Amino acid sequence: MRLRLVVLACFVSLLVARDLAAEDRVTVRGNYYRETSTRVLAPVVYVEKDLPDERFTIGAEYLLDAVTSASIGAGAAAVTGGDFLFTEFRHEGTLRASARLKEWSFGGFFRYSTESDWVSRSFGLGGARDVFNRAGTVSLQYMANLDSVLQLYGGRAIPWTGGRMNLEEMSPETGGRPSNLLQVHYLGLGYTHALTRRLLGGVLAEGIVSKGPQDNPYRKVRDGLDESHPRLRRRVALSGFLRYAVPKTPLVLEGRYRFYADDWAILAHAPEVRAHVRFLRRVILRLRYRFYTQTGAYFWRADGNYGSDTIYRTADPKMTKFHSHTPGVEMTVELDGLAKVRGLHWLKGAWVQATYNHVFYSEGYRFGPYARLGSLAFSVPF
Questions:
Q1: DSSP H or E segment with residue 283
Q2: Terminal C-alpha separation, the chain
Q3: pLDDT for 211-262, tens place per residue?
Q4: Longest Cα pair distance anywhere in the chain, in angstroms?
Q5: From CA 26, how far away is CA 344, in angstroms rounded?
Q6: Cα–Cα distance measured from residue 284 to residue 355, given in angstroms and rounded to the nearest whole number
Q7: pLDDT in tens, 343-362
Q8: CA within 13 Å, CB half, 340
Q9: Which of 63, 161, 239, 278 is the most exposed place for a label (fewest CB within 10 A)?
């Protein structure tokens, strides 16, 4: 089970209408993630259809998430000589719709995801309006996750309400433990503007409120006690970017920055630089570098020692103080040239794309010194 405290900003682009040069299209993508003790394979198939044209578009997506993890269970190391490997699968389906009406664009989606100890339902709505003769765009997005958190115990999936029963959070109606429902609400307000013919800028303000169990039912702190996180978390983020097309060259330079803060006392800064270049007519290369640094949560302890009477405890590396460096590369090859070959006309408008990112973590990060992320995609219109 992975407690997916979702970075909802990653899905903002799903809420508003896509590029109006839309077309009926099928995209197949394979995603790969690897760190010291976890490997994730996640193939995705996405189909998009205009009805009857780009003014109204619907889409459907299916994702299979196969996660292989290493975990030292009771006696596992003695029997196997090391970590016990197990694989779990997550199935996810998404339906999307978007529309365009003059200066306005609207979008929405519904997503259902299920695995052995997690059931997730999420939806989102968004809208955008072009302003200043379409030199700028204002956007507003809302998204919600309603997740049922479970724990596999004795061959059954039982509700997980948190690692510790906090008496102040007990239900006044029943006197029982809190619900196993994790609610996540996201609101984003953004603005982009063409500052000059070659310079584009944008800003985004985001707020996220999470309420419910936010600890991992299988993760233990150093003394073997259950991990226990607060059931309420409020997060805000401010980000911006500038994108500049260098005159008389195929080069586009981009700078990004994101500031993050929450009421668990985590503060984070993430500057990033990117370079986009087109060469050989149909090849687009993107290089990136991202630096990330954050403080630790107020209940994180560097030595990992917690008393049995401590209300909040964590063994989550994301709650620790750390920093990381992420270089990455992405290459997209447009296949229109092959469409001129007899029998391959269906490749007109198609492309293939390969992406690789390598994350270097600071010393002492629990999930290892590095992580690898990659993807390979093929997209074709129909």
A1: strand 283-294
A2: 38
A3: 999 999 988 888 888 999 999 999 999 999 999 999 999 999 999 999 999 9
A4: 74
A5: 16
A6: 12
A7: 999 999 999 999 999 999 99
A8: 3
A9: 278
